[in-house]
Amino acid sequence: MRExxxxxxxxxELESAIRECPVVYFAYGLCEPHGPQNAVGLDIxxxxxxxxAAARAHGGIxxxxxxxxxxxxxxxxxxxxxxxxEARSWCTAVPAWHHFKSVAYHxxxxxxxxxxxxxxxxxxxxxxxxxxNTLLAIYQPHVAPRLYGLPDFEANTPGFxxxxxxxxxxxxxxxxxxxxxxxxxxVDVSRIPPELPASPEERFAQGANASEASRRIGLRMVDDEVxxxxxxxxxxxxxxxxxxxxxxxxxxxDIERIWDEEVRSRLPDFECCQKLYHQGQQPPPEGSRWRPHxxxxxxx
Length: 300
Hints:
10 helices, single chain, 6 strands, four-stranded parallel sheet, alpha/beta, two-stranded parallel ribbon
């Protein structure tokens, strides 16, 4: 297969790839509980695998994957309390402001290296993908490449089994099927218990319908997402050509200035910084390992 992973390409390969198709994919996710049947890195392994498949099919380069993402604070802490209880999470978590500051520097990398389009694909859900789009909108006027962010389930337009409505889930039939298709060695459906365990510690965030997962349908969903990302990349390239944008190079200081002037004051309104963002969600109980980060002050 043609190499598309930035970190594994030689200079001549990178130069040739950007001449042929000046698109870069950024994949985001983390290690977190995904039931007994899935490797804990499902989110980023899924997003990165889909990005690589899209780049091989349609052109472009895939940036090094980011295995650290928003988790363990605000609504995410409340979610953990409900789905894994007090179990060890094996989570590679950072607070929201840390993650989004990193994304700002990824935007700079796309700009400095001359890409015309940049797609930011998160395999980790919750509301962070909407905050990602807020961040991209803030930085877009300062950079030349056309920016687009999405959760990978946006690209699963036909839905699981062609039902048109399933979108994404957490460690259920959709995510398990996708990882099974992309990295079968990271899924072991024989680990799924006959009945969903009653205790959250045993469930380890397993989706209730994980036993319905299918590698065959996962492969079809991967094809759907690859087709969607290729189409979206084409739209962004067309937008770039129509706008013919030119922006000066950006220094690290420029990124920090934009952050201080345009992002920092908006962080309290980011959805992933809200303490309860799911309907009916409850705070972590007093004494829970998740309680201290539930109301963690924003320090962006």
